[in-house]
Design goal:
- It holds the Pfam family BPD_transp_1.
- This is Multiple sugar transport system permease protein/raffinose/stachyose/melibiose transport system permease protein.
- InterPro entries: MetI-like (IPR000515), MetI-like_sf (IPR035906).
- The protein has 293 residues and is an all-alpha fold.
- The protein has a single domain, classed as MetI-like fold (Orthogonal Bundle).
- The chain is 71% helix and 0% strand.
- It has 13 helices and no strands.
- Helix 7 packs antiparallel against helix 10.
- The two termini are 46 Å apart.
Length: 293
Amino acid sequence: MTTTETIRTATPTEPVGHKPFRFLLGKSFATFVLLPFCVLMAFPFVWMLLTSMREANTIFGGTFFPRKFTFAGYSTAWTSIQFPLHFWNSVWITSVTVIGVLVFATLSGYAFAKLDFPFRNTLFVLLLLTLMMPSTALIIPLYLQLKAFGLLDTQVGLLILYISGSAPFAMFLMRAFFQTLPDELIEAARVDGGSEFTIFRRVILPLTRPGIATVVIFQFLQTWNEFLIADTVLRNTDSLPLQPVLFSLMGQYSTDWPALTAGLTLSVIPVVVVYVRMQRQFVAGMMLGAVKS
């Protein structure tokens, strides 16, 4: 064997023994650091799940893990607050809100990112200014506006508030995703004779799935867990979504903790399903800005 061949065979083997060790050491250190945070974050959910399956007289005096598991809390939550009705209200209100926000956010985000029209930057800044107002400060004006339009105590009025209040932030996110796409794609599609809406629907929109997934998850969480506006606008109990009704399980002097935590556990299921279904796209969307050159 010549000297050159000896060098070629020896050089690749030098770092082989060190890389796995450094990799395992770094992975172990990251696991050691992150594991306590994971336990801390998971503890409230585990406590809620265990509380929903324990007897009412052992909530604060029993052990962390129930000695006897019971599903009486789920039965109480299902029947006492008409859980199926309000769960369906939350599902359809959240679904319509997410779809409405996506329509406005994608169309306006594409326009602000890729189209040239008068006062584009001025209009964009004005839309961003709406994000500076806290929602609690707008409750009274919005309440009076809905009352003047005859939409108070209606789910249509609630949908208008949800969509109009969430669209600016979603538009801001989608504009950032559209800006990452090269202008050459749009120019090539225009040369081929495609209309602006055809270019948006067939060329641009499929490339922004990570951005759409990000908006869907954020908007779904925000709408599903919203409490204050829904409880203020809707006075008819049958029209209320799930979260304000779950709050009614908290009594002034006593609270049925197994029923309350059982209802909360059931209400978490759609959130988990949506996130698991869109997790890969969501992570890709969050990392897009980090890897963009």
